[in-house]
Design brief:
The protein is an alpha+beta fold. Helices cover about 15% and strands about 30% of the residues. The protein contains seven helices and 26 strands. It has helices at about 10-25, 185-195, 215-220, 225-230, 255-260, 300-315, 345-360, and strands at about 45-50, 60-65, 75-80, 90-95, 95-100, 105, 110-115, 125-130, 140-145, 155, 165-170, 200, 230-235, 240-245, 250-255, 280-285, 285-290, 320-325, 365, 370-380, 395-400, 425-430, 435-440, 445-450, 455-465, 470-475. Helix 6 packs parallel to helix 7. It comes from Paraglaciecola chathamensis S18K6. This is Metallophosphoesterase. Keywords: Signal. One of its GO terms (molecular function) is metal ion binding.
Length: about 500
């Protein structure tokens, strides 16, 4: 059968053109990437990052790096005081230290290598969790390298233990590309917008190559003081996984060994070892944040284990607000043209969506699609009764996908039409538009705002919940026109961006 391009709508033709350009670019040899700094480890501490525990009202975790000469390290902490020498009252604790090879490792199948790190020296990673802290309290801390070589003092605030406490947090989709050239601007702009945020969610694909120490150097150095003061809720994306090249030249696709060495995240004893520090929950005041590892989609047993855990954890949750964050979207907004599968992940949707709807998860925050998309499922999930995109309406869950980096994709021509049987409505999109999100919790509402890199509002809504748990979605009335590739100017390939 002969198919004429003239038979397709303009929107579909634009999508096909953009997809063909992207495909052609990827089939050619990529331009040389811009150089980026890659400072090596020394006996001074660097790459310091704070992460939440399961209960961030009374604890937080730290991870930092030194060269391999440092075999023992320490952290000091003291409640913040106005005294000039607050440090004289600091308590000192020993850290856990692990020396690792960046270029080689071992798995049950044998030894493997990361060619991208060839020639790099071994390093030491140190981790420490400060426990038994007061809630809603500022603490000063510092960490050590070799004897006498301490980081500057940093300040961090524990979460409140009060259910009705108001607070905000940040949410970012994929950084992934331009993590030296473009990502720092977005991260710092967001922090300037919400300097009192309690934490930040990074919804996967923080870097492009999960095994690349240089790319992790760029990501971690993009916001050094931010990472040291704003706990990072980290989601593993498909690009945090990488090929482990074995001695027999076979490859094993697995979570990069840098992930669990660089970050200290909550453990989940109910889950298999393969999901530790990639699937977990952290409990903020009247808000539970559940993190899923959707890259485990290649193993149905790991998906089912997470689904069972999520079901039980949501059932046990007493928090008024429940948020799930994962990398791959439940409903994909991007994909190949002509109804090919593209980005869609039906196995992830089958595993998690029924549980999300059963417990009426409030927000599902995702990445991966490299476009902006917001939609919701109403209380009546009959596809024929989906509400309009602007009206105040009763809903079960809101689904959001965003991108923070400069690599962007077009929205597929079918939008979310193929998902109508789930009662979901795609209500707001953006192409060629990185964003950051500020989400604020009050006693009865979640106030959601999405901003472009110049600080302008792009999307906003308020989610209200009454005493019976009924939720009402009210979308802001005065939003700017939707941004698409045909009204935002030319897009240059991401291949020449500094990673």
């Amino acid at each position: 059968m002969t198919v004429s391009l003239l038979s397709f709508p303009i929107r579909t033709l634009l999508f096909i053109s953009l997809w063909l350009i992207t495909s052609a670019a990827s089939s050619e040899s990529a331009p040389a990437k811009a150089l980026t700094p890659h400072p090596g480890a020394t006996d001074w501490p660097d790459r310091i990052i704070a992460t939440p525990t399961a209960f961030p009202a009374n604890s937080f975790s730290l991870t930092w790096r030194t060269d391999q000469s440092v075999k023992k390290s320490y952290g000091q902490i003291v409640q913040a005081r106005p005294n000039a020498r607050y440090d004289v009252n600091a308590a000192q604790f020993a850290a856990q230290t692990h020396t690792m090879s960046l270029a080689q490792g071992n798995i049950p199948e044998g030894q493997f290598s990361y060619p991208v790190n060839e020639g790099l020296q071994n390093v030491s990673y140190h981790s420490l969790t400060f426990k038994g802290l007061k809630s809603d309290t500022y603490y000063n801390y510092r960490v050590a390298g070799a004897n006498g070589k301490w980081s500057p003092w940093q300040q961090i605030k524990t979460a409140s233990a009060k259910a009705n406490q108001e607070f905000s947090f940040l949410y970012f989709g994929d950084a992934q590309n331009g993590i030296y050239s473009h990502w720092p601007l977005m991260l710092r702009r967001a922090w300037q917008h919400a300097q009192d945020a309690q934490f930040a969610i990074y919804a996967g694909d923080l870097v492009n190559e999960g095994a690349s120490d240089q790319q992790w150097s760029n990501w971690l150095n993009a916001g050094q003081f931010i990472h040291r003061t704003l706990p990072a809720v980290l989601v593993a994306g498909n690009h945090e996984y990488d090929w482990q090249v074995r001695e027999n030249a076979q490859k094993n696709w697995a979570l990069s060994t840098l992930w669990q060495n660089q970050f200290t995240l909550p453990q989940t004893p109910a889950l298999p070892d393969a999901l530790q520090e990639t699937a977990y929950v952290t409990h903020y005041p009247d808000m539970d944040v559940f993190v899923l590892d959707s890259e485990a989609r290649g193993d149905i047993n790991l998906l089912q284990a997470q689904a069972q855990w999520l079901d039980q954890a949501l059932q046990a949750s007493t928090a008024k607000w429940r948020i799930v964050t994962m990398h791959h979207p439940i409903f994909s907004s991007c994909g190949m043209p002509l109804n090919t599968p593209g980005q869609d992940e039906p196995e992830i949707r089958a595993a998690f969506l029924p549980i999300m709807l059963k417990h009426e998860v409030d927000l599902v925050l995702q990445g991966h699609d490299h476009a902006y998309a917001r939609g919701s499922i109403g209380t009546d999930i009959d596809a024929e009764s989906v509400a309009t995109s602007t009206a105040s309406k009763q809903i079960k869950s809101v689904f959001i996908t965003s991108v923070a980096g400069p690599k962007t994709y077009p929205i597929k021509p079918t939008r979310w039409d193929e998902y109508k049987k789930y009662g979901v409505k795609l209500e707001r999109i953006a192409e060629n538009t990185p964003t950051y999100q500020v989400i604020s919790k009050t006693k009865d509402t979640l106030k959601y705002q999405s901003f472009t890199a110049d600080g302008d509002i792009y999307d906003a809504f308020t989610l209200s919940k009454d005493q019976d748990g009924h939720k009402t979605l009210n979308v802001a009335k005065a939003l700017p026109p939707e941004r698409t590739f045909n009204n935002t100017g030319a897009y240059k390939s991401h291949h020449d961006l500094a990673e």
